[in-house]
Design brief:
This protein is α+β, with helices and mostly antiparallel strands. Helices cover 40% and strands 21% of the residues. The chain has twelve helices and 14 strands. It has a three-stranded mixed β-sheet with strand order 2-1-3. Helix 3 packs across helix 6 and helix 4 crosses helix 6. The protein starts with a helix and ends with a strand.
């Protein structure tokens, strides 16, 4: 074509410019993620990476709008980490295709299609505040409300505010759990090296999560949760003789989007952007490929 038109012709230059623009557009639609896994670094295209995250972090049979909300939250989270993550719960759990096949077994085809559909339908979409990707924390199930970011972590973030989440109790089949131990076992677990004699009533945040509890000395709700491996820090304590019972609501740190809450909202007909706006206060949406 260029030989026929003449390499220096105006029309040839126009065609060349169009081809360059198309190449640039194709390149702009690719974002790589650096994933540290088993001591090695892998480079994975963002949307493919997300299919391994959404399939790991949320049940594929959940409503499509809940899966879309999870896809946007996961994409936002990795964007906030400058696309450098590992595959643990300190970042986001990622399973490759062979692991997903093993996990889903005979449901692999349907599950893979649903997860891919959710990721593809939200391609490039992230949540931002003041133009920057937010830290899109999410967790399994709340105790009826989500927690403010500073209730569990150290920093106060405007978009991680406590909100009502009544759907969790309806959707989560394992919403209430219990942990029992003796006074001596609790004392040893907390490093007190003596049986517990007195347990005061927990001090709570407005969200219902435990702020602190005095058991000989003062412990934060997070310390109690992590030491005893409770499902959340939304708990009550009952003492009956030598038996101490922790009754726990929900599962996870409580900050950001409740996955069971997202499912409950989706079942009621809410769209994924409505779900995200509920759990992340004051956010806007942006496209990572057109930023």
């Amino acid at each position: 074509l260029f030989l026929w038109l003449g390499a220096g012709g105006k029309f040839a230059a126009c065609v060349s410019e169009i081809l360059v623009r198309e190449t640039e557009d194709e390149t702009a639609d690719v974002q790589m993620v650096t994933l540290e896994r088993n001591g090695e670094r892998m480079e994975i295209e963002l949307e493919e990476y997300l299919k391994g995250v959404v399939g790991s972090e949320m049940t594929p049979s959940y409503e499509m709008e809940a899966l879309k909300a999870q896809a946007v939250a996961a994409r936002t989270f990795v964007a906030s980490r400058n696309y450098r993550v590992d595959d643990s719960t300190s970042s986001q759990v990622y399973l490759d295709d062979s692991q997903l096949r093993a996990a889903w077994k005979e449901d692999y085809e349907e599950s893979q299609q649903r997860v891919a559909a959710a990721v593809d339908a939200t391609r490039g979409e992230i949540m931002v505040v003041d133009g920057e990707p937010i830290t899109a924390f999410f967790f399994a199930s709340s105790g009826g409300k989500t927690a403010n970011s500073e209730d569990y972590y150290s920093g106060e973030l405007s978009y991680l505010r406590s909100v009502e989440s009544p759907w969790d109790a309806e959707v989560d089949s394992d919403y209430v759990t219990q942990f029992q131990c003796s006074r001596e076992e609790l004392g040893n677990a907390l490093g007190l090296n003596a049986p517990i004699s007195v347990i005061e009533d927990p001090v709570r945040y407005d969200s219902g999560y435990v702020k602190s509890v005095t058991i000989g000395v003062s412990f934060s709700g997070r310390e109690i949760r992590e030491t005893l491996q409770l499902k959340s820090s939304c708990f009550t304590i009952a003492v009956d003789g030598d038996t101490i019972t922790f009754t726990v609501k929900g599962f996870g740190h409580g900050v950001g989007m409740s996955q069971e809450g997202a499912q409950g909202m989706a079942l009621e007909g809410y769209g994924y952007e409505e779900i995200l706006k509920h759990y992340y206060t004051g956010i806007q949406f942006a496209d990572v490929y057109n930023s």
